[in-house]
Amino acid sequence: MKHIRNFSIIAHIDHGKSTLADRIIQETQSVSARQMRDQLLDDMEIERERGITIKAQSVRLKYKGYILNLIDTPGHVDFSHEVSKSLISSEGALLVVDATQGVQAQTIANCYMALENGAEILPVINKIDLPSADPDRVKAEIESVIGIDCSRANLVSAKSGAGVKELLDAIVAKIPPPSGDENGPSRALIYDSRFDPYLGALALVRVFDGTLKSGQKVLTMATQTRREISALYYPHPIEHVAADELKTGEIGIVVLGAKTLGDIRVGDTITDLAVSAKEPVTRYKEAKAYVFAGVYPIETEQFEPLRDALEKLKMSDSSIVFTPETSTALGFGFRAGFLGLLHMEVIKERLEREFGLNLIVTAPGVTYEILTTRGEKLQVSNPAAFPDAGRIDKVFEPYVRGTIIAPSEFVGSMIALANNKRGVREKMDYLGESRVMLVYAIPLNEAIGDFYDKLKSLSKGYASFDYEPIDYREGNLVKLDVRVAGEPVDALSVIVDRSKAEARGRELVAKMKELIDRQLFEVAIQASIGAKVIARETVKSIGKNVTAKCYGGDITRKRKLLEKQKEGKKRMKAIGKVSIPQEAFLTVLKID
Questions:
Q1: I need a surface site. Which of 77, 344, 470, 567 has the fewest CB within 10 A?
Q2: Which fold has domain 291-362?
Q3: What is the three-class DSSP state of 343?
Q4: Dihedral sign, CA of 166, 147, 107, 190?
Q5: How far apart are CA 36 and CA 45, in angstroms?
Q6: Alpha helices in 421-554 (DSSP H)
Q7: Which percentage of the chain shows pLDDT scores above 70?
C-alpha cells in the first residue's frame, strides 16, 4: 500500500484538467506516442467536440516504482456529483487553477468538497506559459480565499509539459498512501459504473479493506444482492488490463455479471459473502435530478424508439430519470429529470445524434412542494399537473446558494441581476483589489433559466457561477397558461412568480403571434392565470378573393359572395383547429 497514490484532478471549467491528465499519462509513458491524442480520457464524441469533461475517468499509471491511480473529473456545476464520487476514493486532489483567471466559483466549491472528504490538496497553477499569466497573484488569491498554503505550489504548463515531472514527484512525496486492513473482510466502494456491450454493467471500485479475487462470491450491502466476480481489470485509457486480484488501496473494475446499471448502485459496498464486513464504506448520496422537462418525438411513431434510447442512455448515465407522459399538444413522450441545463442539452444531443431521433424538449422546470387546502403534500414537476388556485394553500420552491465571482467593475450589474431573479444576498467579499465574490440564495427555477447567459453577457464573459441546493422556501407562484384559438396548449404552460406573470405572458403571446401562420379566420392567442386572461394578441385572417371570377355585372352579386364568405369564416372560427409549428415550442423556451 505504501507505493500506491490515489488522487483526483479538480478545477473550474477550462482551467486545464484534461490537458494536465494527458501530460501526466505521457510523462509516465503509459501510452505509446502512436496511441496518444488530446483529451485522451474523454471518450464521448460530445466531450471531445465541446472540449468539456462530462464523465469522470480513472486510469492506473506507473511511475518510479509507484502506482498512481488518477481520476480526471468534470468542471461544470451540473456534474459536481461526479467530483464527489471521485473524491471519496482518493487520498489527494490536485487543485488546478488558471494562472490568468485565478480562483473561480467552481474552484472554491470543488476545493471545499475535497476538504470535507479529508483529501490532501496540492495547489497546481496551470497555463504559466501564457503572456498574461500572474502566478504570484493567483497564489495570494488561493491563500486569501481558500486558506491553503501556496508557498510551494507547483507551477505547470499542461500544454507544453513544463513542470509536470516535478508535479509527479510532489504527488509521490505529499499525497499520503491509502490505509486499510489488508487481512480483514473485503470492503470495496462502488464509486462509478460503466456499461460494456460484451461484459454488461461494470463496477469501478476502490478497495478499502481485504482483497477481491476473480471467482469470489460477494454481497452488495445496500441491495443485499449475491453475485460472483467473473473478471477483474485495472483501468487503462486504451484497453483495460486484466487482473487476478485487487488488493487494499487499489482501484479497479469488477465484472459482476449484471445486465443493467440498475443492478449496480453507485455508493454501494461490495463485501465477501462468507466473511461479510459489518459496516459499509460510506453513506454515499446518489445524484438527484433537479431540472425536469418534457421530451417528445416530433414524429409520433418514434415514441417506442425514444423509450429504447432513454433506457440505453441510462445504462451509461444512471443520473437520468424518466416517466411516460402525454400532452394534448405534443402527444406521447416522457417527463425526464436532469442534473442541470447542460446535462439536459447533452442528453438531448446524444439522443438525436446517437439514435437518430428528432425531439422537442419543453421549458425546463423544477419540483415544487404544494400544501393543499385539505392538508395534503404534493410534489409537482410538470406545470400541467399544477393544481387549481382554489386547492392550493401554500407553494414551496427549491432554493440554491449561488456563488458569483466577477471583476469588481461589474458588481453593480451582478447585484441588479441577482435581485431581478429574486435572489437574497448572504455575503459579499472582495478578493484582492480587482474581483468580488457575491453569495446569494436564489430560487432554482430562476437559476436554471437564462441566469448564466445573462451573467456572462453582463460581465463580458469574466464572471463565474456555481450553486448548491439548500432548502425549500415559500413562494408566491402561479401557473401561466397559453391558449391558442381558445384551447390551452399544455406544453407551453410555465410556473412563474406572480409579480412577473403579466410581463412573461405579454412576451409569450407576442412571440407566438410571430410564429403562428395566418389562417382563413382570426386566431386569438391568450396568456391566462386560471380563468383570468392577462395578455392577448390576434393573428389576422387572410382573405380569399371570392370575387375574382366576377367581372362587370351587378354589384349585388359580389356582395352576396362576400356575405357568404363572412358566414363561412364564422363557422370556421367556431370549429377551426390551429396547427402550431414545432419552432414555436423551441423559440418560446428562450423567452426570459
A1: 567
A2: Alpha-Beta Plaits (3.30.70)
A3: helix
A4: positive
A5: 16
A6: 444-447, 451-458, 498-515
A7: 84
| Common-topology check for domains 291-362 and 480-588 | yes
Q: Which residues in 419-428 are b (16+ Cβ under 10 Å) and which e?
A: eebbbeeeee
- What is 480-588's CATH superfamily? Elongation factor 4, C-terminal domain (3.30.70.2570)
Query: Cα–Cα–Cα angle for 212, 213, 215, nearest 5°?
Result: 130
Please report, for the chain, the start and end positions of each structural domain, with discontinuous segments joined by +: 4-174, 187-272, 291-362, 369-475, 480-588
Q: How far apart are CA 113 and CA 82, in angstroms?
A: 12
- Please, are residues 18 and 104 in contact by the beta-carbon 8 Å criterion? no
- Range 187-272 has CATH code 2.40.30.10: yes
- The phi, psi pair for 159, rounded to 5°, reads -70, -50
Among 3.30.930.10, 1.20.140.10, 3.30.70.240, 3.20.20.80, what is the CATH number of 369-475? Answer: 3.30.70.240
Closest CA to 416 of 374, 458, 475: 458
The answer as to CATH 3.40.50.300 being correct for domain 4-174 is: yes
Q: Distance between the two ends of the chain, CA-based, in angstroms? A: 55
Query: In this prediction, what percent of the chain has a pLDDT beyond 90?
Result: 1
Distance CA(304)–CA(312), nearest Å, equals 12
CA distance 267 to 253: 15
How far is C-alpha 556 from the geometric centre of its chain's CA atoms? 68
What would you report as the CA-atom Rg of the chain, rounded to the nearest whole angstrom?
29
d(CA 362, CA 366): 12
Work out the number of other CB atoms within 10 angstroms of the CB of residue 286.
Answer: 11
Grid cell for residue 105? 466559483
Per-residue pLDDT, averaged over 406-433, amounts to 87
Longest Cα separation, the chain: 109
Q: Are 215 and 229 in contact (CB under 8 A)?
A: yes
Task: Please give the Cα distance from 510 to 559 (Å, whole number).
Answer: 35
The C-alpha cell 444576498 sits at 425
State pTM to two decimals.
0.72
Q: What is the pLDDT of residues 72-118, one digit of tens each?
A: 776 666 666 667 777 778 888 888 888 888 888 778 878 888 888 78
Residue 48 has what pLDDT? 52
**For residues 59 and 252, what is the distance between their CA atoms, to the nearest angstrom?**
9
Confirm if 415 and 386 have CB atoms less than 8 A apart. Answer: no
